Known about the structure:
By secondary structure, the chain is an all-alpha fold. The protein has helices at residues 3-8, 14-36, 48-74, 82-98, 113-117, 133-157, 162-181, 207-233, 235-245, 247-252, 257-283, 293-306, 312-331, 336-349, 354-364, 366-379; strands at 193-194, 198-199, 202-203, 285-286. The strands form two sheets. A two-stranded antiparallel sheet has the order 1-4. Strands 2-3 form a two-stranded antiparallel ribbon. Helix 3 packs across helix 12, helix 6 (133-157) runs antiparallel to helix 11 and helix 12 (293-306) crosses helix 13 (312-331). The longest helix is centred in the N-terminal third of the chain and has 27 residues, at 48-74. The radius of gyration is 22 Å and the shape is globular.
Amino acid sequence: MGPISRRLFALESRSGWIAIAILLVIGLFIVPALNLMVPEGSLFHISTFWVATLGKYLCFAILALALDLIWGYAGILSLGHGAFFGLGGYAMGMYMMRQIGDRSVYGNPDLPDFMVFLNWDSLPWYWWGFDQFWFAALMVVLVPGLLAFVFGWLAFRSRITGVYFSIISQAMVFAIMLAFFRNETGFGGNNGLTDFKDILGFNLSQDSTKVGLYVVTTIALLLVYMICRAVVSSKLGRLLIAVRDAESRVRFLGYSVTNAKLFVFTLSAVLAGVAGALYVPQVGIINPGEFTPAKSIEMAIWVAVGGRGTLFGAIVGAFTINGARTYLTGVAPEVWLFFLGALFILVTLVMPQGLVGVYRSIRSGELKDAIRRRIQRVDV
């Protein structure tokens, strides 16, 4: 195993798993305790707003893991993963809209408010079944997975790779965005789905429900990480790395590159759909804005900043970028986009392996040696 491969699997080390265990304890026990058990006036109290915000970051971390699985390990840069995230979110949003019943503005137990406003007579067939949670959960997985399977089969079978795949994936998410913006499509048009009341009988406005969603999302992030780690540590993972580095050689050796890519791309889409389903009840809305190509591009920036091909780096990048967004959009909203662009350029030119790569270089002494060699060149 070469130096690059050793870096890829470094988080299987004891120190890596200890770090994950510490983060899990903080996420599952300390944060909920500081919200529910510590009085609001205390310095150590974490407000429900920040619990919900952290829950949103966790959803983004799951999404970043899904993208890193295909980009970092298989070399598939998808700029349309917002499609799978949004479809999973809409599936969960449709379930919660059906749960509103006669508590809606118009008091119609059979139709969502936007359908009543548009004078729809009956519920469209593709809304059937969403009054049941099990059906909605199935659609969260099935719809993004089926779309990814069909799209990936057509693309990989045609051997579309590199920038061409990125372009057509972006075209896919843009087409879905245009469809969902239209009122006649039946998904709320520009306003999307909102005004949710509860989920599985739990009131979404209560602090305990928000903390519960946060805990569920934390557990989901751990499970997704374990799934991704199992994939990349297996023979399939080594095959994906080989495909990323030398696809033509892998084909020459007789391996089915198309099947390997199709499996990991479909799995990634399913994970992105799960992230979207967990995201919607915590933010209280889902609209076509989640399908904008800019959102999908930003996902790639999360992975690049954290460290592509490391999994853990994807989580770090998602939290770092979105934490910076929350801070900068509050104190200097006009600076945010410039900061994001500058950070991406900095990572591309100076930190190609992201923040995790910088940390590993510092720990191993590689960064110090590189600086010393650069100084010696200047002196000469």
